[in-house]
Amino acid sequence: MNYAMSDRENDAPNPNGSGKNRNPVTGIIDRLIDIGREQGTVSVGEMSHALNYRSYGPFFLIPGLVGMSPLGAFPGMPTVLALMIALFAGQIVLGRRHIWLPDILERQKVGGDRLERAMKKMDPVARWLDRHFHERLDILFTRRTVRIAAGICLLLVVPTPLLEVFPFAAALPMMVVTGFGLAMILHDGAVMIASGVLVIIGLIAGIFIVA
Q: Are 190 and 73 in contact (CB under 8 A)?
């Protein structure tokens, strides 16, 4: 299935007519809670259609948030999320304007009640993000910088299957992926920079641990 991106990298308009959606992250979480409540099982494809993606950001934000939520602790889930992120990121790095999601990933399902509970736990985080982050340093957002961010996300999730051996270790790269996704949705250059700094800190820490 292909998901076309709009020409402008931002979230859907505010339904109240005030221009930009001032609560984009909360809106995403609320929609996932709704479809979890409405359906016994929810496929990845159904989540994608329900959210009606209009920017690259949600392709990183949603898997990242799920990976950081209690759902991310279930065996195999981090690997599935990593495969999704790698697939999205690879296409963005190549400059594709249409994101393709294979049927085998679209058909992956999670219990509706489990999805609802996990997203409810993430709701306070979403509200905090919407409250504290907004458009800053918008000049940082070009096709090139978005592709660079996607490339970083791709590299981060490659070792995720190995990290499943350690409880919640996979949540660390997911945190950075979430940061880049949030930055893309809100056009917040400060978050983009902070996510990059986290990557550098992680690399330095990894070098010291290995040494």
A: no
Rounded Cα–Cα distance for residues 175 and 67 (Å): 8
Tokens representing residue 157 in the block: 């999730």
Total of domains in the chain: 1
Per-residue confidence in pLDDT tens, the chain, 211 aa: 554 454 444 433 333 334 455 677 788 788 888 888 888 888 877 777 766 555 678 788 888 888 777 776 677 788 888 888 898 899 889 887 777 777 777 777 888 888 888 888 878 888 887 787 777 777 777 788 888 889 988 988 888 777 776 766 777 788 888 888 888 887 788 888 888 888 887 777 666 655 5
- Strands 41-43, 98-100: pairing is unpaired
Q: Are 25 and 129 in contact (CB under 8 A)?
A: yes
Give 177: exposed, middle or buried? Use CB within 10 Å, 0-12, 13-18, 19+.
buried
The residue range of the domain holding 179 is 2-210
3-class secondary structure, 159: coil
Q: pTM of the prediction?
A: 0.67
- Per the structure block, which two tokens stand in for 68? 């950081």
